[in-house]
Amino acid sequence: MNLAILGAAAFLAVTLSLHVGSIAIALRRCRAPTQLMPAPAQASAISLIRPVCGLDNFVEATLASSFDLDYPDYEIVFCVAHARDPAIPLIQQLIAAHPDARASLLVGDERISANPKLNNCFKGWNAAKHEWIVLADSNVMMPRDYLTRLMAAWRDDTGLVCSPPSGSCPEGYWAQVECAFLNAHQARWQYVADTLGNGFAQGKTMLWRRDILERAGGIRLLGQEAAEDAASTKVIRATGLRVRLPDAPFAQPLGYRRALEVWRRQVRWAQLRRASFPLVYTPEILSGLQWPLAAAGFLAAQMDLPVVTSMLAFAAFWYGLEMTLARFAGWPLTIAYPAYAVTRDLMLPVLWINGWLGSDFVWRGNPMNADAPDEAHIRNT
Question: Are 81 and 120 spatial neighbours (Cβ–Cβ below 8 Å)?
Fold first, then answer.
């Protein structure tokens, strides 16, 4: 029994230290900016490529934010794969409403990989006029200093700057649960990895310098993995350069979410992480409150403390730290946050198991396979 007590105490000490330490790092890195970052007078020209597929929640606002950036020299290239895509009239209206902007719309689908998003971006990459290129999903809300903040994160040892999304504008219970996944959990740990010098890419926003990717083998290399961000991470690390993150992630307005939407998205991401980085994925089973909470309850029982009261106090402290982070980062926060976080943490071990058991998923109507993207591409073309 003494060995069990020591093991539980050690496990609790390690997990609690990791939780407190990661929150401390995220508090420093994710704090909401209090003012816009001014663009440099001699700013490098940038090509902003936005792949679009369908009409997401808030799509008009997110695409319109492309035109309001406080940056002296940039072009916007919207990419759509199919001529019947319902987003095309909206993009055309936005371009017409901003005649002074250097904006264009490219339609077509050259299948260089099994990844539909990468295929959609390919024509934009080739058409981009500038050396610096940003690939940004259509559901990213861009603040006026978006490009300036990305460029400011670049260092001499950088090969790629990216940003995870922070969930915003949630409507309904499951959108709040998705915010609990995106913000105080996933974004937090991505900033921890970056701070420790082991940053990895997130496909929502990626700032490239064209010559770096071309020397490595070109944009087609990003099709070697089912997810272009995982491939990007491996390509950049192979060059000896680093993936870096700008301070404070950029918002992705969510709107209404159904439970099945949130579940499928998290399963897909779990499968992709497991397929691309299995050694990093393996310890994810220990993430969340449930395991340290069980250890706290066990220790309370051994010390003749009130178990339920002790566990509730521990959970309040654990989630209180997450709520403090959300408050300072400017993320959605309500008094019901612990309910959303509990739902997330109960899902985590089930998602982890699904990540190991499955590899097939559907992204925007396209069947894909996390383990064999090339074979999936051949099968579906």
Answer: yes
pLDDT digits (tens, 9 = 90+) for 147-206: 999 999 999 999 999 999 999 999 999 999 999 999 999 999 999 999 999 999 999 999
CA-CA distance, 132 to 161, in Å (whole number)? 11
- The reported pTM is 0.93
Cβ pair 219, 119 in contact under 8 A: no
* pLDDT > 90: percent of the chain: 91
Count helices and strands (H / E) in the chain: 15, 11
pLDDT tens for each residue of 364-381: 888 889 987 664 443 333
Cα 313 to Cα 13: distance, rounded to the nearest angstrom: 16
- The torsion angles phi and psi of 363, rounded to 5 degrees, stand at -120, 115
- Tally the C-alpha atoms within 13 A of residue 342's C-alpha that lie toward its C-beta: 8
> Tokens 């397929």 sit at which residue?
275
The mean pLDDT of 207-226, rounded to a whole number, is 95
**70 phi and psi angles, rounded to 5 deg:** -85, 75
The DSSP letter of residue 187 is I
CA angle 118, 51, 246 (to 5 degrees): 90
Integer-rounded Cα radius of gyration of the chain: 22
Q: Among 264, 286, 280, which residue's Cα sits nearest to residue 358?
A: 264
Sign of CA pseudo-dihedral 348, 305, 321, 175: positive
- Distance from C-alpha of 234 to C-alpha of 326, rounded to nearest angstrom: 31
Number of residues written out for the chain: 381
Q: What are the start and end residues of each CATH 3.90.550.10 domain in the chain?
A: 44-256
Q: What average pLDDT does range 353-361 have in this prediction?
A: 94
Residues whose CB falls within 8 Å of the CB of residue 328, separated by 6 or more in sequence, listed in order: 27, 30, 31, 32
Residue 306: left if φ>0, alpha if ψ -120 to 50, beta else—which one? Answer: beta
- Other C-beta atoms closer than 10 Å to the C-beta of 35 total 6
Domain 44-256 has CATH 3.90.550.10: yes
Hey, is 208 helix, strand or coil?
strand
